[in-house]
Amino acid sequence: MTVNTGILKDIMLAEQDELPVDPILQILGVKKLSSNKESQDRVRLVISDGEYYYTSSMLGTQLNDMVKDDFIEVKAIIKVKQYTCSIIQENRKILIVLDFEMVKTATEQETKVGDPVALSDLLQNHEVLRNELKAKKGPLNNNYVKPNSATANGGGLNGHAKPMTNKNFRPNTNAGPPQSASGKNIFPIASLTPYQNKWTIRARVTNKSDIRHWSNQRGDGKLFSMDLVDHSGEIRATGFNDVVDRVYDLIEKGKVYYITRGSVKTANKKYTSLKNDYELSLSNDSEVELCTDDCDLPDINYDFRQIKDIEQVNKDAMIDIVGVVKSAADVSQITTKSTNRQVSKRDITIVDQTASISATLWGKDAETYEEYVNANPVIAIKGAKVSDFGGRSLSILGSSVFNLNPDLPEAHELRGWYDNGGNNEDIASLSGQRNQMSGGSFKIISQIKDENLGMGEKADYFNVRAHCVFMRKENCMYKACPSAECNKKVIEEEDGTSYRCEKCDKNTPDFKYRLILSSNIADFSGNQWITSFQESAEAILATTAEQLGKCQQDDEVEFNRIFDDASFKIYNFKIRAKMETYQDEKRLKCSAVSAQPINFRQESKRLLDSIKQMEGM
Question: In the beta sheet, which residues pair with residue 5?
Fold first, then answer.
């Protein structure tokens, strides 16, 4: 089988819905294009049909691994099973290869086919060639097929290439944008670029966020986002204000929709793990319509990493993992700095055959997990954020997707491993380890002075493992405004029945207690005074501010017992150190950002792992 001579000219001059099917071409060049750290690498191809060669061709990003594995080589001959052409200038097209089948490897095809010339020079006289094409009778090269739902029966990677993401993900659309049963021309998600403004995609909604509100100097607003997937790839779409009112209630997770029009812009990789350099912004002109056609679109698109590999992942990266929830803590409440509102939080420990790691569930996810606390479910997470506090940990954000006991081969394999002895294996933990490279290492207290921590323009953050040797009971809490958005101290009115908040400018019949605990912590090298606020103080005292406040008023014995029980216990502290000026006097202020009691079982494993590493040195 050889190349389809002259077919590149036909491809460049054809309409989108008349692109030749399964063209056979030769690769004459492969070049990795430089990209910034937030974008995926792109690979440019030089392709030839023996008569012409074309340099404006790209490999779909979902096939990048094939270049890394040297599967795509210069002089190889391929059958392009799925592709699209994106117009970026009036007479210029980018050919994007989405799926192909290897016909001859570079070893089997050692020479260049024909003596091709540059097609771009010929295409400058576009109108003459276009009229020539229209004058032709019959299908070009016997390859013209107008795709529709009946002929979209797929292609494949012929068993050589890696799937786009998980093992069940397989492209199965035909060349060019296929037509739906309703007559819509469908563009693959992977073909969308900022240069297009007229497109329709058909995609399944794999995740839909709650409506989020914001307020700033420019006014108030709201937004929501959803993750979309088709056979070519995935993308995130976001709607704002009027779009939220119009389409939010129409969207259901798991269903397939036609989405027409919207702007395509560069994606912010800080907030998404989707494998797409772009994201969609829905406008008032965008149309969202439920798809009632028969179509076989994938449900969700994972790119799983083993837990042990997370140690090498950069902080704040977004990753996908699957593991068994070995343990789960109780729900706690914390107050966010950005909104000053309380949110629910639950820490869980996830394990696979390679390692374990701590992860945090937030909000509704933390609350609804209650029924699974003792069930040890398999959890698949898409878009978990990597943290480096105390080693490595994960945060499951509002934009993350997690499924419990998913029907995936990886999940079934883990279930079998865990139930057949894996739960008793001695698995190393990535969380709480002493890791110099991760920024999660522990300092001793004497280093605060020796290294002049907190003396710079910005605050210094570091971890300390120390005993809490003394806590001041006096002024350890205050009465605060009960509003969720305000923690300002209130003033009791003379009548004794109401409390005044100057910040909110109102009187309330009630108040809430807020902790501000001054403690002296010590290790073998020295001691340091620190201030702990609400959440960290509650962790040290092992009680809530409300319970402590009631004891202070009604039960002095219990109040003192709480402090006695917390004394001389060891904690992992995350400390913020900053030099501040008070009454013209400079002093170092250290605050506990967080405090966690030592998990002695986990700490023993960490020490044993350290000893083993030292023995092997």
Answer: none
